[in-house]
Amino acid sequence: MRVLVTGGTGKVGNAVARAARLAGHEVRVLVRDTARAKAVLPHDLELVTGDVTDPSSLEPAVDRCDLVFNAMGLPEQWLPDESLFGRVNADGSANVARAAAAAGVRRMVHTSTIDVFDAPPGGRFEESRLAVTPRRTAYERSKQRAERAVLDASGDMEIVFANPATVYGPGPAGSASLEKLFRLVLRGLLPTVPPGGFGVVFTEGLAHGHLLAAERGRPGQRYIFCDEHATLMQLARTVVSVTGRGRAPLATMPVGVATAVAAAGEAVARVTHRPPLMARGQLQFLLWNAVPDSTKAQRELGWKPTPLDEGVRHTIAAARGPKAVQS
């Protein structure tokens, strides 16, 4: 089967492209920067230059494809220009869906997020808990709008939504990646962590989930992919436990201190135009502290979560070599 993957230089798209190739598919990847793509993608994938914000550039990418994995997007919770979230995440996704439908693509798996769901702080949620009001940050609102835009632009093409929790694991790292936390813990440079927690999902397991969604997912349905819920303190202690190295933080920040740090960080970021260590949107997400339920994906797709210690071990091994972790 010929498949197109968008977002191949990002963590999710990269893992999906690799998994699709290992599954025997003929994989084409939409890229903006060919040199960057060649540095992070297997050499036997077909690269097609294009940009999701330029509809005319998408026609060659979707030509003669049977399936599209739309895994591109801006995953950060802060950008100097917030309008980019809407132009890329929402409008760009609609452009991909429209081009794919016009080319006769049978099905598209759209990578969304758990941020489109609603639950009380600390509560548990599953796919029926779709938020009916706009979420708090520009990123979250863009992902809400992206789901609606994809459905509106899809025509007769089948759409299946993959809604991952916070993604970590091997692959290209973004500005908000958990791997930064892992490195700080290994170096003993993280004396304290913000409060709260979130669901996490390992990249390779998530990529397999995308393939299962393409094969078995019901059209129009959403599937949450989450291994388990974890606090930042739990993640840090897992890094120390599986490696026997580094030092876990000594304490968790009080909410008031974390709020002040996030506000100050964004004030500095507006001047430097560099992402803050913790944006207010990221802190809000942590304090939401809700628990995603992946029962539907496990039951309907046959997907299996990755144990946290196993995922962390593989992530660190991929970054530092197999001798960096204990067997």
UniProtKB/TrEMBL annotation:
It comes from Candidatus Protofrankia californiensis. InterPro entries: Epimerase_deHydtase (IPR001509), NAD(P)-bd_dom_sf (IPR036291), NAD(P)-dependent_oxidoreduct (IPR051783). One of its GO terms (molecular function) is dihydroflavanol 4-reductase activity. Residues 3-186 form the NAD-dependent epimerase/dehydratase domain. GO terms for cellular component: cytoplasm. This is Dihydroflavonol-4-reductase. The keyword Oxidoreductase applies. It comes from the Bacteria. PANTHER family: NAD(P)-BINDING DOMAIN-CONTAINING PROTEIN-RELATED, PROTEIN YEEZ.
